[in-house]
Every structure is written in C-alpha cells, then in structure tokens.
C-alpha cells in the first residue's frame, strides 16, 4: 500500500505532482504538506499510526519551471489528437510528416511537423501539401507550456481525485484530457493554459 499513487496539490489546490504513499506520509510528517483526503485506512509503526493519504496539499507554494515541450513523436501525436492531419482518420499507426519536406529546406520544428497516416505520408512523399494536392486539417503550432501529465488510469481508479482534477476544473485551471493514444491517455495540466 505504500506504493499507491497520491495526488499532490500545490498550496492553491492546483495539481502539482503524483507521488507514492511513502513519500506523501513523509511530507505530511515533516510538516511540508497537509492531508486532504485519506480514504485508504492507516499504516502502523511501532509507536505511531498514520492515515494513508490519497490527496495531499503542500503548505508552501512550489513554482514549477516552465519548459518547452520536447519535439518527440508522442508529443506531436498528442497535440494532433492521434489523428492524421491530412485525411482526419484516427489511428494507432501514425508517422511524422514534415509539411515542407527537409529535402526542400523544411526544418524539424513544431510548426513544420504533423501526424500523418502511412497512406497519406506515402501519397505526399517529398512534396509540399500544395504540390501533392492535399490540405492540412489544422495549422501546426507549438504547444503552450510544458504542463504536467497525470496518467488517466489514475484518474479513473481514484475517484476522490475528481474534485481536484476534473473536466470542469480543467477549463479554469488549464487541464485538458489529452486524446487517448495507442497505450495510455493522459490528463495534462499546463500553468499557461490549454
């Protein structure tokens, strides 16, 4: 039970992190956090017993540094909702496509990379979308802020987290349900908004 995930809220009750039960108990014991939800019973030592936390809140505000997201396949697929940006088909079998091909001077940047199914990527080849007679569904842009990801299965199995990380709260806190990928869906929280 000391390996179960615990939602860590910042001082202002916005999601900050997910840690293990053992770490959460230490944070509460040292006075660095306070218990918010404890629906899991107790853990006993020789001299004391501690409530097993499900949600804790840090007693002091901790600033998260804002980093740019790395340009990797998973991030591009999440940005594009696991959908081919040419035909609109949602699929697990996606590739990355450079809108302006690198052979024509295109750069490897957020504004030039999109998700494409293998069929569309082959059809487009080493041409621009205009040259291939294809149209992009949306203009590629860099995602805003680094954000924090809470694995979706945590959210589903820990119902007590829903009042702190919910779709409704997501509209005000900048949380959004990222499109489900081939293996996992994520709740994303970005301090700069969706």
What would your notes on this structure say?
A hairpin with an 8-residue loop joins strand 10 and strand 11 (186-189). The strands form 4 sheets. The chain has a 4-stranded mixed sheet, with helices on one face. Strands 9-11-10 form a 3-stranded antiparallel sheet. Helices cover 21% and strands 24% of the residues. The protein contains 6 helices and 11 strands. The chain has 194 residues and is an alpha+beta fold. The protein folds into 2 domains: 5-65 and 148-189, no CATH class; 73-132, DNA Binding (I), subunit A (Orthogonal Bundle), CATH 1.10.30.50.
Helix content class: 10-25%
Provide the low-confidence segments as ranges. 167-194
Number of E-state strands: 11
Radius of gyration: 21 Å
Structurally, the number of domains stands at 2
The H-and-E topology, N to C, reads as EEHEEEEHEEHHEHHEE
Biggest sheet, strands in spatial order? 2-1-6-3
Biggest sheet features: 4 strands, mixed
Q: What is the overall silhouette? A: elongated
Mean pLDDT: 79
Structural class: alpha+beta
């Amino acid at each position: 039970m000391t390996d179960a995930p615990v939602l860590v809220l910042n001082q202002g009750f916005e999601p900050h992190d997910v840690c293990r039960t053992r770490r959460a108990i230490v944070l509460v014991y040292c006075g660095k956090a306070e218990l918010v939800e404890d629906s899991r019973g107790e853990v006993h030592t020789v001299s004391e017993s501690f409530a097993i936390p499900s949600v804790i809140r840090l007693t002091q505000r901790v600033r998260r540094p804002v980093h740019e997201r790395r340009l990797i396949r998973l991030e591009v697929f999440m940005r594009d909702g696991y959908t081919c940006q040419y035909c609109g088909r949602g699929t697990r079998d996606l590739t990355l496509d450079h809108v302006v091909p690198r052979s024509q001077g295109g750069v490897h940047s957020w504004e030039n990379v999109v998700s494409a199914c293998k069929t569309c990527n082959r059809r487009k080849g080493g041409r621009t979308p205009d040259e291939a007679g294809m149209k992009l569904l949306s203009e590629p842009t860099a995602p805003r802020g680094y954000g924090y990801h809470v694995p979706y299965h945590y959210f589903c199995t820990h119902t007590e987290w829903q009042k702190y990380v919910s779709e409704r709260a997501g509209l005000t806190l900048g949380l959004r349900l990222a499109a489900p990928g081939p293996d996992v869906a994520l709740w994303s929280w970005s301090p700069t908004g969706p």
